[in-house]
Predict the 3D structure of the following.
Amino acid sequence: MTHPPVPALTTHLGYWLRMVSNQVSLAFAKRLEAKAVTVAEWVVMRELYDVETLAPSLLADRLGMTRGAISKLAERLIAKALIARDASPADGRAQTLRLTGEGRLLVPELAALADANDAAYFGHLTPAERKAMEDMLKAVAKRQDIRTIPVE
């Protein structure tokens, strides 16, 4: 019995995308580790950076995460004194999340780490190549209706 030919792994775009993505993500996670923050925590902090306060349920919706996941991340960030949980001024039973002063100061430092990580992996690309890559990846995400923000 003969088997049909099977293409090599390296013929698949998904192989190359995953190879690069894994390395980019791992390097970024290591950079964040030096600041005692995980990628998921960075994502939450970055989302809170542009607002005064945000309800955990809205944060979960924005990030495409479950409310339980947001609750766990919030607890970790509260323990690190990077975010705070307050009673909502509109409804005392509801809660909101906000960056603490320390958290607000840390976000630009973490953003600089993200920029440095991007530069390390993609800095050799011309602006046109970078734009083309970004446009292609966005087109795939749109076609596949991928909306969940990557956190790990």
Q: What stands out?
A: The chain has a mean pLDDT of 94. The CA atoms of residues 25 and 152 lie 8 Å apart.
